[in-house]
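pasting for the record
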Amino acid sequence: MSTIKEVQDEIVSEFEILGDDKESTIFYIMELGGNLKPFPESERKEENIIKGCQSKVWLIADEKEGKVQFQADSNTDITKGLISLLIRVLDNRRPDEIIHADLNFIQKIGMGSIIGSQRSNGLAAMIKQMKLYALAFQTKQNA
């Protein structure tokens, strides 16, 4: 399995191919959302919505063999693409790896200029929620 750094480098390479073409980049992000596993209808409830996102983003996490597994969905394609990138980097990792992950691919691909400040705040909220889940699982493991 690739490290968090390797997965981020892969993502940066994919986005470098698109160059400065903002339209293609946004289309690509939206396309990535299609890679998400189907989200259980029963989990589309208020308590699974990430606060601080303009769009609705549902996120759930589970622990399997000491690793955190995420599932997410959104009501907008671009947000679905953003959360799919985060899941690609952080899914199936140990809690401590997630907590200490430096998600530098976001800056490297110039995400801030692509998605604007509202969605950047939402992206930060998604990362925070994923790290909080990891912290909760780590606390449970150490109890």
